[in-house]
């Protein structure tokens, strides 16, 4: 049985008032009423209620109910409390016969029609979102339909496989353990019901805050509509306007929280395998990394380090010196990350502390009859913590004390969809009971249908918050496989059990980009592919691209050939090592981008349209022409082949503006804004022809945006090693005019002292003068932290003349000899410095 809202006559009433109104068609004679709220409107009819309120001038909350007297609880696992309680005053009206009621904020106009359709416009009257039909109610669920235009593009939804642009596709949100997923597989590990709608250079965002199984159809069923809905639960969504895509991402972060500033070491190269099964094997790998001078910071232990796969145990036969081994790794600048799955072995009367203490505290999820639920996972029969209880998460956090006391640095929450073996659904039964006992929520019992999609997020939350209690001044590193919207507050993530194929290498870029747009800036894909054995060239190319991922983890499955950097001989190793080394040289730039993420929510790895929404004349995202390309931070563009297994040349489509070759410093011809789909127009303009690249195994095209200043460090073997030498500032003037800037952020890399001002932040800018000289300004730094460098090397690219002179604060100085670009050594200073190179 389906029903739609029916409301045929509405009269707007003064703030706070509510009177019955009479509908006027068919046999609908039940009163309807409108309440004018200080922050929006509430309309009721026939047991149906619709409320639209403004959290900010550019953020709306839309919620509805079709059950008389029942309205969704104002609680959320995704939205942070400060945003959930936010509101702004609105101005009622205007009203019209076909748009009976409405209100406006300082940036949006909302109208609700007589049949309960919502239209959202900007103040200039441009429609931003328009309902295609009233809300359609099902027995327990609902469907919302919106008007779709031919030039609509959709991004987000987390790590769903497939193209970056979701237009024409349909998806289900239901966290699923999906080993060997393929490009058409859906669903997989995460449920992030947030998307960006991008049309003609204008972006809006929408978060459907419903934890049940939800679905999104971006024009697959009907090219004139896009729809979203759920099988049960609240009809609550948030709409927010850009118009810039970056603004939408920042607003989503305001709603759901940002990725915390990670420990510096987690940005280094990470080596993993399922499994390093003995201490000897793990230490041999660590020693080889150092012997071959392959920069690296982290090693992982998968489930085989445990006794009979039981979480929070150690197999003392395979790892007889576990505490001493961790200490040895730490001395050699390695951080150990161990897996701690959430399934606790069901072992009564066996002295297994996690089970015993969990039973004593009543911390496990229950069957409908009140008994503890048990399912088969890696340790055999297992029980599962009830993470929707605050006390249970606190208990879970205490289980990490033994590992943190022994110096383990990070933790990996896997299998937390939750995955259960030997059942067709791959997870818990729908009728399993969870107890919600959480600040901000009504205390109640919920079925697994409601909690399934947030179970992994609350698992990682328990880990993150537990580690903070155990080590209050150490930034936790938690890696989770399953999560929900807002899960970025607690954990980094990866794209799950990918495969060692060229197609999965290709899939890496859009998955990480969409995860970044969906809040998860700290993310990666298993380098080399988890399932299967990559041929040497595939592993090499993957390591090259992985060097520009936020998380760079080489990982492989049991039974596959080794994935370590050296496995295919010295020629392949040299190429792989070169790109890992370049990541470490770029560490100041990468860490600065991570700090920006922690404040703004803007991802580290970005699609082109995020920085260049106006790159094409018809407003379509340039990414649809430039598959394989992505931005590393906001200044560096990586142009991987759209078909990495091919040897034929491919086209690189750079966004408009000035660009430089990262590897050579060569200044390229200026790129103009042109519709890249119009091939005849594109090829008629010499300056706009795409760059033609012939793939070579040892090469990856990388470009720098004109108007950038990139900080570069001397090479180290880990982030714990102090760089030896000056900090290099590579200056790429914007020869076409416009801004030229960059910045650097530093702190101790591990603690929260930066919150007390113990950080270093410095902004740089440059100007090209009409006489050909370049002025580089180093602002006075802020913060009380002292960075590792005492000098800076300023290198300026793109200058035509071969003879140069330089001044520092007006005093003539000598340039460094034998450089391909003019460079000068500048003493680090606590005051502003001006460098001029002529």
Helices, by number, come to: 14
Shape: globular
Strand order of the largest sheet: 2-3-4-5-6-21-18-17-14
Tally of domains: 4
Described by its quaternary structure, the protein is single chain
Structural class by SSE content: alpha+beta
Return the CATH architecture of the largest domain: Sandwich
Give the termini separation: 77 Å
Report the CATH C-level class of the largest domain: Mainly Beta
- Contiguous low-pLDDT stretches (5 residues minimum) are 1-29, 679-687
Average pLDDT, rounded to a whole number, is: 93
Radius of gyration: 28 Å
Specify the helix fraction band: 10-25%
Provide an overview of this structure.
The chain has 838 residues and is α+β, with helices and mostly antiparallel strands. The protein has four domains: 3-256, Immunoglobulin-like (Sandwich); 264-342 and 393-420 and 453-584, Glycosidases (TIM Barrel, Alpha-Beta Barrel); 598-705, Immunoglobulin-like, CATH 2.60.40.1180; 725-837, Immunoglobulin-like, CATH 2.60.40. It is 18% helix and 27% strand. The protein has 14 helices and 52 strands. It has a nine-stranded antiparallel sheet with strand order 2-3-4-5-6-21-18-17-14, with helices on one face. An eight-stranded parallel sheet has the order 34-33-31-28-24-23-22-35. Helix 10 runs parallel beside helix 11. The radius of gyration is 28 Å and the shape is globular.
